[in-house]
Write a structure and sequence with these properties.
Shape: elongated
Mean pLDDT: 86
Number of strands: 18
Distance between the termini: 110 Å
Number of helices: 13
Oligomer: single chain
Structural class: alpha/beta
Strand content: 15-25%
Radius of gyration: 28 Å
Low-confidence stretches: none
Helix content: 25-40%
Length: 461
């Protein structure tokens, strides 16, 4: 009788414990998806820190999302990858937390990101560092950390030129190691071709290329055709194409900057190419508008103009004088409008700009660099006085010819009336040939200075 009573008591206790377990959340912490507006997911019951990851259980699959904002008890999430089949009331829990499935408890795990280090060289990854090239992931290497912010007073000054391998750049727009340059261009004027020339020809230890918001087919073409096997061996390609989520495009530019910063801190000279800064701004615009920000300039919210300098200011020279990040950002001019708000902001935060001219491209002049409108703000710091004088003279003659070419085409030009125009007309065929270069040709800095000295009649010292 005593044993039966004891057994009954234990059975009731076990039943109570079972009910308690069944009524408990299915994970350590759990929220509920209550609203989906575009790409914005509103989750209640799961307070999160901005930047933290979460997993949304759709029943048929688990998707990743990242917290981009909050309002009181509501967390605003955005999916990492494009998804389908979202259902109301779906449970949401922190990434990595165990969750209950019909087969028992499981852990949500995404594809492992490659360690930050030399294992990235020669690889193609997405904006979160996950490989997309089909090659194996070796997690045995320790992962380094990128510097997020530098004291401006500890930055090493720009003191030496970068050999870009392009005559027009080396001669009249000389780039310094640690400089940040914008390449401003409309569509179809040879922007991608010029980026390929920079990626192959720049003298650097590591090339980091961020393809942000561009066409997906360009990723493979850029890796196989533009870079080639030799250049790919020292390159890291971060791909976040146009069909990626806005969050992935933002992270693509940020992760490419992280990789470049890491290699700079290891004592290497890095060239960072981001194509394009405009697509980065557009992705941030999508996120900002989703969060309810007011559009203040052509549909761009204030966060866009705060994020752009935040991204750009991380690159450049660090504390080490023997290492650098030289960055090239492409800026797409919609309708060839140079007063686009993104272009205006970029000109103010970069150390120089290269304009690609549609008129030059239409006439078959490649690379279509308009040296009249382009400028390198650090060129006086990294070039000799003779080089500067020759570059200034060529730019003056180039501008003078452009101003007088309508008179020449109309037959109204009379030789002898303007000595400067006479000299510009005389040198124009040679100068035009000097500024052109085939995509597979490389001209070093020393050869460029020798050719410029011969053209302008100066000294290349």
């Amino acid at each position: 009788m005593h044993l039966a009573s004891l057994f009954d008591t234990q059975r009731r206790r076990l039943k109570a414990l079972q009910q308690r377990v069944n009524s408990a959340p299915r994970s350590v912490r759990e929220g509920k998806l209550v609203k989906v507006s575009g790409l914005l997911y509103e989750v209640e019951g799961l307070p999160m820190v901005i930047g933290d990851r979460a997993a949304v259980n759709l029943g048929h699959s688990i998707i990743e999302a990242e917290c981009i904002g909050f309002d009181a008890g509501t967390s605003y999430l955005m999916p990492v990858d494009p998804i389908d089949g979202v259902s109301p009331g779906a449970p949401v829990f922190p990434q990595g937390a165990p969750y209950w499935d019909v087969q028992g408890f499981k852990h949500n795990r995404t594809a492992d990101a490659l360690p930050m280090g030399d294992s990235l060289l020669g690889r193609v990854v997405d904006g979160f560092g996950r490989p997309i090239d089909g090659k194996p992931v070796d997690l045995s290497h320790p992962s380094g950390q990128a510097t997020k912010r530098l004291n401006p007073l500890t930055r090493a000054p720009i003191h030496e030129p970068l050999d870009a391998g392009i005559k027009a750049v080396n001669a009249s727009l000389t780039v310094g190691r640690g400089q940040r340059v914008g390449i401003f261009a409309g569509s179809g004027v040879g922007k991608s071709v010029m980026l390929g020339m920079l990626a192959r020809n720049c003298v650097a230890d590591v090339i980091v290329i961020g393809l942000v918001g561009e066409r997906g087919r360009e990723v493979r073409e850029f890796c196989e055709d533009t870079l080639g096997e030799q250049a790919m061996g020292r390159a890291v390609v971060v791909a976040a194409p146009a069909d990626a989520s806005p969050l992935a495009r933002i992270r693509g530019a940020s992760y490419a900057t992280d990789v470049a910063t890491y290699f700079r801190d290891q004592g290497r000279h890095v060239v960072l190419i981001i194509d394009s800064l405009t697509r980065f701004a557009m992705a941030q615009r999508e996120i900002g508008l989703s969060l309810g920000e007011a559009p203040v300039s052509r549909g761009y919210p204030p966060s866009v103009f705060a994020k752009m300098p935040e991204l750009v200011e991380r690159v450049g020279n660090g504390e080490r004088i023997d290492a650098s990040i030289t960055a090239f950002y492409t800026i797409l001019l919609e309708g060839d409008d140079i007063h686009d708000p993104v272009a205006d902001t970029a000109r103010g935060i970069l150390d120089g700009h290269i304009f690609l001219s549609r008129n030059l491209a239409d006439s078959g002049h490649y690379p279509a660099i308009d040296i009249e409108k382009s400028i390198s703000r650090v060129m006086p710091r990294v070039t000799s006085r003779d080089h500067q004088d020759m570059a200034r003279k060529m730019k003056m003659l180039y501008s003078r010819y452009m101003q007088g070419r309508e008179l020449i085409s109309m037959g109204a030009y009379v030789p002898g009336g303007d000595p400067e125009l006479d000299q510009a007309v005389k040198l124009w065929p040679t100068m035009k040939n000097f500024l052109q270069q085939s995509p597979d040709e490389r001209v070093g800095l020393e050869d460029t200075l020798a050719a410029l000295s011969t053209l302008m009649g100066g000294k290349a010292a």
